[in-house]
Amino acid sequence: MTAKQIGTIIILVLVLIIVIALLVLVLSLRKKVRRFSNKMFGTPDLAEGLEQAGIRETERPRSVSAMTGILTPKIRADFPEMNVPEAIGRAKNVLLSYLRGVTERNTACLQEGNSELKNQLENHIADLDSRNLKERFDNPHIHRAEISDYRREKGRSIITFQAALECIHTIRNNDGKLVKGDEKLKYQTRYNVQMIYIQDRTIVENELDGAIAVNCPNCGAPLEMRGSSKCRYCGAPVIEVNLYAWSFASVEEVI
After folding, report:
1. pLDDT tens digit string along 150-195?
2. Each residue's pLDDT tens digit, 87-121
3. Structural domain total, the chain
């Protein structure tokens, strides 16, 4: 046997060893992956496990900033007649009617809200129309809604509600081609809904809704005190006016 033949045999043996080592490594990794997948997803097939995990994720509601218990005393200190559970219910209805308005491309679906909110919905629909898109929120369901913030600024008192929403969300072009979303998977997200109370007209910035009731129904004087139960000028009861002075002003998705 010549030296050349010996060298060839050595090379072949080394190649065979490397191939065997790689094969052992691949089998070992495959075994570990299957064990990991079985432990994490309940199936040895990693691809199937990841798909199931993705489906389960779409079933999990988003968490919300739940500050209702903390902020309710502060709100009632300013507005003794405020019915917080009723306000949360109204916020939920506003959100659902807003999304229905987007789906049906009809601002008349909006059940309540000032001109700021109506303009927001009109602009949303107009933007979709300009891009030849149709957005739908099918089978919407609110898992939970809470007060997430309360503040007073520049003549307004503002309550922000946050809701965990589940729906089938899709966007299609005019040809029916799906641009965004999945009609087979649930979409979990959060929305903020803001409700405002005009305290002082003279210092409110960006006041677009002149229909908000902030005057005494008896003498016409401005109601300057938040949550007042009577007019400071004539003494007439103004509880109902104060309740209806609250108006929904915006709906925004929280990404």
Report:
1. 998 877 899 999 999 999 999 999 999 999 999 988 999 999 999 9
2. 999 999 999 999 999 999 999 999 889 889 999 99
3. 2
157's CB contacts (< 8 A; 6+ apart) are: 78, 79, 150, 151, 196, 197, 199, 226
Placement of tokens 């809701």 in the chain: 163
In the block, tokens 């966007």 appear at: 171
CATH of residue 234's domain is 3.10.450
Same domain, 113 and 16: no
Residue 196 pairs with which residues in a beta bridge?
158, 247
Q: Are residues 89 and 213 in the same domain?
A: yes
Residue 223's domain comprises: 65-254
* DSSP-assigned letters across all residues of 113-164: --HHHHHHHHHHHHHHHHTTEEEEEEEEEEEEEEEEEEEEETTEEEEEEEEE
* Same domain (yes/no): 23, 129: no
For position 90, what pLDDT does the model report? 95
> CA-CA distance, 24 to 18, in Å (whole number)?
10
